[in-house]
Amino acid sequence: MVNDPVSQKEKIDNLLGSFDAKKNAAQFFAPLGKQTFVLDDAFIDKAIKEIQADHPDFISDDDLVALKKRINSVYEVHQEDGDALLSNYNHVDWYPRAGEERPYWDRYKAYLVKINPFMKGTIETFNRNTDKITNYFGDPKAEGIFQVRGLVMGDVQSGKTSTYIGTICKAVDAGYKVVILLTGMVESLRKQTQTRIDEGYVGYDSVSNKRVGVGIGSALDLPRSLTSTASDYTGSNIDKNTDMSIRPGDPVPLILVCKKNTNVLGKIIRGMKNLNISSNHKLIDAPLLLIDDEADNASINTNKPDLDPTKINDEIRNLLKLFKKATYVGFTATPFANVFIQPDNTQDMLADNLFPQDFIFSLKAPTDYVGPMSLFFDSGNYHNCLVNIDDYIGNESLFSYSHKKDWDGDRLFPSFYDAIITFCLANAIRDLRGDINAHRSMLINISRFKDVQAKIKVITADYLGEIQKAVRLFGRQKDVFALANPMMRKIHEVWQKQYENHCEYSWDKVKAALYDAISPIDIEVINSNSKGHLDYAAHKVHGWRVIAIGGLALSRGLTLEGLVVSYFFRNTSTYDVLMQMGRWFGYRHSYGDLVRIWISQTSARWYGEVAEAIDVLRKDIDRMVDLKKTPKEFGIRVRADSEELGITASNKMRNAVDRIDRDNGSFYGGISETVYLSEDLNDHIHNWDCVKKLCQHLGTPDPKVNQPYFRGVPKAFILELINNVHIPQGSSQFDQPQLSKFVETSDDPNLNAWDVLFASKQKGEDEWPLLPVQLPHGVCPNAIVRTCAVTNGGYLLVSGSAAHIGSRDTKTGLDPQKIKEIEAGRPPEKGTNQTMYLYEGRAPLLIVYCIEPNVEACEPHEREIFMQIRTIPEATYPAFSFGFPANSKVTGSSTLFKVNRSASYYDNEGFKTEPKKEDEDL
């Protein structure tokens, strides 16, 4: 039989439905005792044989292999339940009510599984999470008045939109009558969100006058939508669907999907007042659910204390006050600004009225989510997707981070053109795989200036035209002719670099498929000046192949469907802006191996730091949930611990404190390490003197450990080292004064005797030759090689892309059986980390690292700096890591206090967020 890719993909999709039927039947009979249902390899193989028997002349051996691969990819995906911090842990559960029908939710659930087979393995977790979130809303049928404030924290591009549509459906089923969904500040995002709402909740597109999504084949009453994909709320009488009157007993709910715009919010407030509030009714007696998408953007009070709150913040609060019962829920992947609301004073913080004082819910991403941890850490599954932009060094005359709005160049870095070719190749490979009608996107984000973005479009279009011309003429010719063409040679070179060793198709097949694959590619500039927008719905049937050029307008909430290649060259460094610019996070089913992200080493390092901080924040939530802490306490902790890391724009932290005063509990179960070191060579010479002094008090090494490992070292000698080493004070990962205070004042007997490890590279780890470092009293570790960097502020970063100096070095010296017990206790989808080995009862651990910089991997302008270390006897940088065992008896807390703002880590680093000016692309 002919087994072309398109027919095979369609066939596999149909066969997956046959497998679902067999799986569902097995699940149905299992409770009756007729058979035991287990979705394992045996069941899958049995089901596939039955499907083959049903279609003996239709399924080839290749089809069976593809079907099993598809089944495994769909059903291996799973998701953990989320965690919640509550203001009242005696919260009375009210949702779901027993016996109450949930028609809006039922049809949305069915729709989700239909359009996304990969949700089959996570739909029940999704159901539980949205149940929990809805349960924390105010009960719409309860007596009295309520104003609930909450926050849902997810990951960038991880499915937050699906989550809030799910909660909208459930809230309306439970009795909420009015839903207002606030999107970002740009119309393109509002339209994209409206489309999702129409498909998942409303069921009708008023522009096309057609039922869509959940509305197809549904007899359920359609919600009354006062907005559409064509228009935000206008309040104009000449528009249809502007009637805001809320009629008692009317079963049809009302919804608006609006930008966070003061004019729009003002019209909604006036319309609600005029039609629903009279002298007899001071408040609207209809429950309101207000969903604030991207809640850290534009909703936060950013004005100085002596001024009124920002207008948008004020209008949101005024809108909420109109209703007798109102629930406000912010959704964001970067919640830092939300917990910075008026941080100097707890009462003011809560009184701000958008602070999530009632609940903070942390969603866990499904296992198929491609997030920052999997991209920006050496151990990440998708780390090899990163391509270093290093050809800007020495080419600043072409383009630079600090380019001006009048930049008028006509060329960019060579890597820019490689990225365009890679996008073309990825399109051909996806066509060969049968994903012909799937969307594919490329992101180019290298300037915030709208005029510059327009010029980049011209450069991109010219080069794409050259590629298209070359493949049209030579794409189906033999290489002896094709590669005589310079452009075809270049395409072949990029193919060899990016895909040759990882692709199931030969160069000849990809070459032949190129022209058809890249002919339909469009190029769109996305900003407030551009006529184009990311209208994937208009290309729903055949899929859209698009190169999107922009800046912040591409960064907030917008989804680039099928994003496969990104070229990112920006110097913003605050957590929230940086993470929102990462449109490459998300789900990459069937093409994850094709994803490529061009990014500078510095930006990749920043992303690693952000990922680490968010990971710590999530672990903090887990710990504080166990301790039944409140959102207020969490807000203080996050602000205190993270403010130094350049979390968000300074105007959102105007009142934020600069430091945290830790008490006994703040170091237990954690690592404090010197990932940043001084550039001054004399500081390293001094630090080696401190290490040599410590060596005099170590005693005899443990002979059972294959690295220099010493036990029972008195606390006094550890404290002396902490007090005397010269470490830059900008880094919050090593707060020298407070670390010293904690060790010195602790009366915990378990901290009196320390273990000391000199981390030593073992033979055979890689091709790098061993460099022994000779220290006093026979201590001779081998140097640890790290890819190092120089920060803007002149510090030396020695943690590489892993954001830690070491990698699970804390398990050194432990009994092998204990290591097995610890690792067996972790969730199967979670990797190991340093802190998991710091179990309660073990000794505190000091790790001394002899860091040998990998000079060849450094950026060229940094090599001279790192070569200097070879002039001292040890030829390496001394770095330190202090690990403290867990202590379940001490919960710990954090006290805020003020210091000079010059202590801010990112200010010291010289990392500055790009200032927003009139040319910003929004």
Care to give the gist of this entry?
The chain has 922 residues and is of the alpha/beta class. Among the domains are: 5-75; 390-568, no CATH class; 664-892, no CATH class. It is built from 25 helices and 27 strands.
Question: Can you describe this structure?
Answer:
This protein is an alpha/beta fold and 922 residues long. Among the domains are: 5-75; 390-568, no CATH class; 664-892, no CATH class. It has 25 helices and 27 strands. The protein has an eight-stranded mixed beta sheet, with helices on both faces. It has a six-stranded parallel beta sheet with strand order 11-16-15-12-14-13. Strands 18, 20, 21, 22, 25 and 26 form a six-stranded mixed beta sheet that branches. Helix 17 (575-581) links the parallel strand 15 (563-568) and strand 16. Helix 2 (41-54) crosses helix 3 (61-75) and helix 20 (681-695) packs antiparallel against helix 21. The longest helix has 26 residues, at 601-626. 46% of the residues are buried. The model is unreliable at 1-6, 302-309, 338-350, 639-665 and 891-919 (pLDDT under 50).
Strand line-up across the major sheet: 1-10-2-9-8-3-7-6
Low-confidence stretches: 1-6, 302-309, 338-350, 639-665, 891-919
Give the overall shape: globular
Structural class: alpha/beta
First-last Cα distance: 54 Å
Give the biggest beta sheet. Answer: 8 strands, mixed
Helix content estimate: 25-40%
Please, how many helices?
25
Let me know the number of strands: 27
Cα Rg? 29 Å
Mean pLDDT: 80
The proportion of residues in beta strands is 5-15%
